[in-house]
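debug: dumping io for the single-chain case to check the tokenizer round-trip. Nothing else runs in this session.
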Amino acid sequence: IMDKLGRERGLISYATLSDYNANMAVATGGGERPVDPSLVRTAGGTFSEKLAHFHIRKIFRPRTFIYLGAWSAVGAALVYSLLTRERLEINVLHDRNPQFVTLSDGSIRNGYTVKLLNMIPEPRTIVLT
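debug: decoded output
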């Protein structure tokens, strides 16, 4: 934006509170007097090298990489659990009362409800015996 306006870069920028305090100490001669522009700018009109400027290192600190690693590990764990989940789920529930029924030919019948859940998009044939 500063280039579009024809102004010098750095007039408006990101700064931490410690940078601001350090720059104010430079501009006021250690807090002894009001802001002195000659302490902020050189004779050529550029900013003094004594001023604290924004550095990319303030964003990419070790803590940032620790957070990146932690979130990457969480993401990898979620992807792994999604890729290794079961592709078929079977639920077998015994019917409610009675536990069994004796049929007229003497055989015993147990009632169950079987539910199969296919978790892949292709149809599958499943044989239950």
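debug: round-trip ok. The helical segments are 2-5, 17-27, 37-40, 62-83.
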